[in-house]
Amino acid sequence: MSKTLSIAIKEFRQIARDRRTLLILLFVPAFFLLLYGYALSFDIRNIPLAVEDNDRSSASREVISAFVNSGYFDFVGDISNEADLVRRLDDGSARAVLVVPGGFGRDLRGARSTGVQLIVNGDNANTATTVVGYAAGIVSAVSARYEAAAGLAAARPLLSAETRVWYNPELRSTLFLVPGLIAYIAMLTAVVSTALSIVREKEAGTMEQVRMSPVGPLAYVVGKTMPYFLLSLASSLAIVGVSMLLFDLPVRGSWWLLVAAVALFLVGALAFGVLISTLAETQQVAFQLALLTSYLPTLMLSGFIFPISSMPAVLRAITYAVPARYFLTVLRGVLLKGAGAAVFWQELAALGVFAAMVLALASLRLRREWSLSR
Amino acid sequence: MNAIEVRELTRRFGAFVAVDRLSFDVRPGEIFGFLGANGAGKSTTIRMLCGLLRPTSGTARVGGIDVAVDPEAVKQRIGYMSQRFSLYEKLTVDQNIAFFAGIYGLTGDSLAARRTFALEMAGLGGREAVLTGSLSAGWRQRLSLGCAILHEPPIVFLDEPTGGVDPLSRRRFWRLIRDLARAGTTVLVTTHYLDEAEHCDRIAVIHAGRLAAIGSVGELKQVFAGRPIIEVRAPQPVDAMRRLDQMPEVEKTSVFGTAVHAVLRSAEARPDLVSGRLRDAGIPASCTLVAPSLEDVFLDIVERSGR
To answer: Does the global pTM surpass 0.80?
Structure first.
């Protein structure tokens, strides 16, 4: 126990003095958080919107200003006829056109169902889907006000546009990205740093020096990984905290469940780092192995950036072997939906199985490498 | 009881035999030198003795314990230092000492005493907070030795401990080794520096994984009993060597710096006889009888065992 602690203290001191590692552990997460949170946001803003207002009533102006004031749309001009509309969309000076029919205001005041038409440039399907989603939200908000004014029940909306988005009503992708970011950073610190720090000791000969002492492989690995476990855990929780401040990330579920899920994921990731260190003799090889087997899958195949549901069948099958996939489901559930452990027992079990399998494999290989070489 | 007992120790890597049926004993408190060229099997032997590598066959007992049976018990009783001075360069002197004390389970008073001992031995008193990586090789070497013997092991293995260190530091290091041995520690040291072998009580010469010779320096030099060595200095050493090789009295010749060493077959042969023969052949040379150096001994042993 005291031997393990000696190793952990030594590792902490090394990390504290190693600027590069410290930079990876502390600043890369912050950098990515800000990058994804602000710059690389998948949200679409400032969509050029042209308006064909055939009603010119206070009601029509209210709908139009609701679009413009939402921040998602930029008003680029009025259109008076069909030809103008086609030209606007063709030359790209507008990506969406809002058409308000004549008699719109009269119908609304009379509490008769009516609608607005939104024509969206569909050359980018993703953008179009998002735009349609925004429009639906805006229209139903206006509709709700008139329903309330008219004293109608919400059963039948006055203004048609019936899309409702749960959990993330504004479709803010930041909220969706934060759990992925936690998985990504955990992978980076846990797998890459652990593998590199062990292989570095192999290269420097200090590992052989330690092997010559009465320290078992278990004490060595626990001591070696403990600092990275704590750092990764702190780093993950810091991301949650910063996201709460900057992006209004809700933590709707239990903090305990959150910490438990992160810890379970980290144990698997650390074991994976140890496993890689037993396969590589140089830091370069270790880094490439880590990149290929954990970092890239976490980025590409976990649902972090690309939705699993839209992957080809082969890739979708591979995602079942990526622990971050389960981790993301749990995190998104806990953070955004406030769901409890009962909902995620399958994912948690999958994470547990992964951690147990990799731990077993890593300790098997380490024991072979550590004790008498055959 | 001997500190180390090695019997028929063999290690193969595939078809390659790195260590071939090695047998020798090391007595307690002895400085035992392991002499051999690079790749002769010295490090492989040490790794087996320290419990890091499993012998293919044969046995090795270190401190009375069979290394193949209980390598962990061996590790508590030995100190190990390699040519890489395996310290953590990004930690300070004190932090390195604290780490190695920690993994050997030193605490409290014994920790404080051994820390002071290591700092004094390395001559690093007052420089505890210096980064190890910024120390010169000689300091790191002594600190590395200090860290390796913090737990006061009765047996210490030193694998090429003086590589890359200046001559003054080497001399200082060997003084530390002699102090250790005088205090009762058994030291097994590998080297390929012949002059360092002179510091050892006994030497084992390893060639191609086999024990080629064993004994004190004096004993090893006995291979030249009845085989005097004539040192020949000539303006044309190559011509002189060719002529010497033709003489029936000359067993063999070898180049030593700018001179040629000729080993004679009989004790009676005199230097003036050799210089006379060379002069007759038109090769002026000065010939003197010299005592065998360790280099003569090493070359002779390696040549014989290679045959």
So the answer is: no
